[in-house]
Amino acid sequence: MEISQAVAHEVEEEIKKTERLRYEEEMKVRSRKYIDELTEKERLLRELKRRDEERGLEMEKKLSEAEDKIRQEAMKKAADDHRLKDLEKDKKISDMKVQMEEMQRKLQQGSQQTQGEVLELELEQMLRREFPNDKISEVAKGVRGADVVQEVFEKTGKRTGVILWESKNAKWSEGWIDKLREDMRRLTANEAVLVSVELPQEIGTFGFYKGVWVTGRVSMVGLAWALRKNFWEVFKQNRQNVGKKEKAEEVYEYVNSLEFGHRVESIVEAFNNLNEDLEKEKRWFGLKWARQEKEIRKIMDSTAGMYGELQGVTGRALPEIKALESGE
Fold it and tell me: In the chain, how many H helices and how many E strands?
């Protein structure tokens, strides 16, 4: 009986031990399964996190690439716009250069006909301005003869002489002299004057050359006054010595004498000196006014530039200044 109880107790203990081991094993299995589940969940979480990070990096990369693309496109557009503006500016500069060169070429190589007409007009205006009592007649284009005929009248209305004027703005030609002498004989003029930009080597500013007077533009007014004065002297002598052939011959000899030439030369030189002083004063005042105008324009440009910059900074919040807006 006691043995059976001992065996039974031992069997019972063995059973308990077996059950305990099985329970522990089951618990280990369960614990390991639970751990595996946690591990798997952690792995899944890490995987999800990694994927999210990868997606974030990919998104950042795409955003960065998109930004770079937008920036590059913007830079390319800006560069294209700038290049187009540069091309447009270069074209404008090139066109302006061509126009300036063309204008310069036209100015430098203007037709002799146009230049001659300008000189002729200047001559005619000078005669009308200086001698309002004389009759100044322009010879029509295409009509054989000189450019201008000046009939000189003294204060009582008596005609004292005729001056034939011819203007030239070209390379000197001896043929001009022959033609002018022929015109002088045909029109029965007392004197003939050739106003030329280019003079013979023998002539300085003016002089009597092969039967006609030759002068440059500077001396033509003085020469005109001198010739008119001679006409008046001859007229006065003729009036005082009517019928006295000897006196007329004396006057003729005087007109053709060296003394008369020197007197005319002194009159012209005096006039030229006065005219030169006047021209110097005109140039001085012209330079002075040009400098003042330049300084005023510089101040206006600087003020307009500063006003425009401030308008840009303030978003055009500054009050409008009509004078600067209109550029006046």
Answer: 7, 6
